[in-house]
Write a structure and sequence with these properties.
By secondary structure, the protein is of the alpha/beta class. The protein is built from twelve helices and twelve strands. The strands form two sheets. A seven-stranded parallel beta sheet has the order 8-7-6-9-10-11-12, sandwiched between helices. Strands 2-1-3-4-5 form a five-stranded parallel beta sheet. 38% of the residues are buried.
């Protein structure tokens, strides 16, 4: 029977959410911070189930896992896997389904938490502090700027409109037809979107054109009263420039669910800046998504063992 390693099962729930009886499954709830530690732990396993991009799989790692035959990732896209290296080492890579609604829901939790100062006010209540110490921003009548208008961006637009917000969007490939079909204004440029928006929310795929898309110059275009939300990928925003903009109050605040290093180091400034509302990459962490990930991972294993792999990425 093949051995299966389930990586980064932070909540230690994978074994209970699916029937892994076709393999000898071992769940690892701790994150392996180094490649050496990971190889030592899973070097004898033929199957690995990985959660999103929590643990990268570069060419160097494939070279050190000669027993690996099947790699499964949650979702059908994972930029942290070197697919060419997988092919070169004869490793089959498969994916699973993944819902787009949870990230949109979390994005709105961050927007509401920031603009209504939920965390500081709730903390003050709990600690016996002053009764009302902040003034919330109004969403109704304000402008929501969406960088990206795909599945998640489209959901964001509809919810923003329900709040009475004016929604404007931009991306490299966004067409006027797509924008108008959702009742959204197409910004002529990312610069104009940044300059007019009260809330800017990032919903782009990380790639060559979007890496570092927002740097110091772009952040300087934003209103000092505006909020920046990123539940997509950290590298879309220059992290050094972002920290500086937040430290100097160049923007009002940021809601962040993604970081350049995850888990985020305990001494990282984004953990302590008062105008940051940060969550530990929770966008896809919901019961329904987890059930999909692990149950479809088992389906992938069954299909692989039967000689007919499904949901192939290689």
């Amino acid at each position: 029977m093949l051995r299966c390693a389930i990586l980064d099962d932070y909540q230690n729930v994978a074994l209970a959410l699916a029937d892994w009886s076709a393999v000898r499954a071992t769940s690892f709830s701790r994150h392996f911070a180094s490649e050496d530690a990971l190889v030592e732990a899973i070097g004898d396993f033929e199957v690995v189930m990985m959660m999103r991009e929590r643990t990268p799989f570069p060419a160097s790692l494939f070279a050190r896992l000669p027993n690996l035959r099947l790699l499964i990732t949650s979702g059908m896209r994972n930029a942290s896997i070197d697919l060419d290296a997988a092919r070169a080492h004869g490793v089959t890579v498969c994916g699973t389904g993944s819902a787009s609604t949870p990230p949109a829901e979390l994005t709105w939790a961050l927007i509401l938490g920031l603009t209504k100062h939920v965390v500081p006010e709730a903390t003050s209540m709990r600690n016996g502090g002053p009764w009302q110490s902040t003034i919330g921003a109004d969403l109704h009548g304000s402008t929501l700027g969406l960088l990206g208008l795909g599945k998640i961006g489209g959901q964001m637009a509809r919810i923003g409109q329900a709040f009475g917000m004016d929604v404007v969007a931009w991306s490299h490939n966004l067409t006027a037809d797509r924008a108008s079909s959702l009742g959204v204004r197409l910004a002529p440029s990312k610069e104009s979107l940044l300059a007019e928006s009260d809330v800017v929310s990032v919903h782009l795929v990380l790639g060559d054109r979007t890496r570092g898309l927002l740097g110091a110059g772009e952040l300087a275009l934003m209103k000092p009263t505006a909020y920046l939300i990123n539940t997509s990928r950290a590298a879309i925003i220059d992290q050094t420039a972002l920290v500086e903009a937040l430290r100097t109050d160049r923007i009002a605040g940021a809601g962040l669910d993604v970081f350049d290093t995850e888990p985020l180091p305990v001494d990282h400034p984004l953990r302590t800046l008062p105008n940051v509302l940060a969550t530990p990459h929770l966008g896809y962490v919901t019961g329904a998504n987890y059930r999909t990930y692990f149950r479809e991972a088992v389906q992938d294993i069954d299909a692989f063992l039967a000689g007919s792999p499904i949901r192939l990425l290689t």
